[in-house]
Amino acid sequence: MKRPPADPFETVDVERLRAGHGVKWGSLRSDTIGAWVADMDFGVPPAVREGLLRVTEREDFGYPYWPGEDPVVEAFEERMAARHGWRPEPGLARVFTDLLQILQVMVEYATEPGDGVAIHVPAYPPFLASIARAGRRIVPLPMTRGETGWGFAAAGLTGRLREQGCRMLVVVNPQNPTGRVFTPAELASLAEAAEELDLVVLADEIHADLVYAPHRHVPFASLGTVAARTVTATSATKAFNIAGLRCAVAHVGHGRMRDALDRAPLDLFGTPSVLSRVATVAAWRRSDAWLAALTRTLERNRDLVEKWAADLPWEARYHSPQGTYLGWLDFTGSPAGAAAPAEHLERLARVKLSDGAEFARHTAVDTAAFARLNFATSTSNLLEILDRVTTALA
Predict the structure, then answer these.
(1) Residue 362 burial by CB count (10 A; 0-12/13-18/19+): exposed, middle or buried?
(2) Three-state DSSP class for 240?
(3) Interval 202-247: pLDDT, tens
(4) Contact 64/277 with Cβ under 8 angstroms?
(5) CA angle, 141 as apex, 310 and 85 as ends, to 5°?
(6) Do 195 and 226 meet the contact criterion of CB atoms below 8 Å apart?
(7) Residue 140: helix, strand or coil by DSSP?
(8) What is the mean pLDDT of residues 105-110?
(9) Percentages helix, strand, coil for the chain, rounded to the nearest 5?
(10) Where are the alpha helices (DSSP H) in the chain?
């Protein structure tokens, strides 16, 4: 009798991960567990693997060409409508390599040196670095922790952004690293400020497929007239574990941004490969069953981290993420102290977390006591991570 396939999320092959080209494990000592960079320890959906193998067996590595519409754009439009209830206006989407490239391009075309770019902080460190390197001013919208979770102050938002000379608003939803999935009311407050101040909005929605019930992802461009000033950036890379293949989509709703991109040199932004396009289409069109099983695993792991945090001997004030596979941990009251807990844990526990201070670089927001945990791994590996942290801080 043929045995049923093993649960692809039940175990992870650590030796495979260490021997590969991924920075999450490959850059670490052999006795250290990687729980930092935001990719998963699992494999890829069968449809993605099969598509890549077909291309490889055909030795189909010429310059990309498809008759008619780019299949990535078609798959993007289909997915936004079917999964998130938003029908992107046709003809406005462009394919890029990743979301960081999209951010850099939009910052250059939407703002001038010295302009303010607003973003919720803590924030994905490469976004902060990109804005700062471009000579723009980061205007932090601090995420604050309340009894029920993380949020931001919507009252007086327009006035604050006006005073800071903002020309662009970056909305990362679900938010990285807190895992907040913004409500329609929260998004509406941001849209109102953007409309009144004539801001270009970059909506980073790369984690949209990784949202836990009862929460729901609402595309920023689905809110009405704000769509005409919004660039929606997304990718299959996070939810389907194909970050190294480099493929993303920008739906450019802002007319001035579209005109600027049309005037740019034709090959200035490059183009993703055949492999990345094939993988993206396979992920978005034929991998939802795999994604559902993944989400169940991530939800179990999320609950495990929440229980672990509740049992810590200090008041962690931890709030489980509503989306993403990232936990934002506060070590203020722990033996690790309020500075560089990730460094402390890498040295003593041999667990690599993301350094919290990096998520507020170039701003006055203090996140030095935090570290970000990636729980997209097998439950057994996650238990080992949590046990090592507990032991090191005992």
Answers:
(1) middle
(2) helix
(3) 999 999 999 999 999 999 999 999 999 999 999 999 999 999 999 9
(4) yes
(5) 80
(6) yes
(7) strand
(8) 97
(9) 40, 15, 45
(10) 14-19, 23-26, 46-57, 71-84, 99-110, 125-133, 157-163, 184-197, 237-240, 255-263, 274-286, 288-310, 341-348, 379-392
Residues in the chain: 394
Greatest Cα pair distance, the chain, in angstroms, is 71
Q: Is the pLDDT at 281 greater than 90, yes or no?
A: yes
Give the CA distances from residue 375 to residues 83, 134, 203, 299, 354, in Å, rounded to whole numbers and listed in that order. Answer: 24, 32, 25, 10, 12
pLDDT tens digit sequence for 40-69: 999 999 999 999 999 999 999 988 888 888
- Between CA 364 and CA 367 the distance in angstroms is 9
287 neighbors 49 (Cβ within 8 angstroms): no
Cβ burial 262-279 (10 Å sphere, 16+ → b, else e): eeeeeeebeebbbbbbbb
Q: Are 115 and 168 in contact (CB under 8 A)?
A: yes
Between vectors from CA 241 to CA 223 and to CA 75, what angle results, nearest 5°? 50
Locate 193 and state its tokens.
């400020």
pLDDT in tens, 295-329: 999 999 999 999 999 999 988 999 999 999 999 99
For residues 18 and 27, give the distance between their C-alpha atoms in angstroms, rounded to a whole number. 8
What are the structure tokens assigned to 131, written together?
A: 């804005």
> Alpha-carbon distance 130 to 170, whole Å?
12
Single-letter amino acid, residue 49: R
Pair 71, 284: CB distance under 8 Å: no
For residues 248 and 308, give the distance between their C-alpha atoms in angstroms, rounded to a whole number.
35
In the block, residue with structure tokens 């080209």: 21
**Cα angle, residue 356 at apex, residues 352 and 357 outer, rounded to 5°:** 125
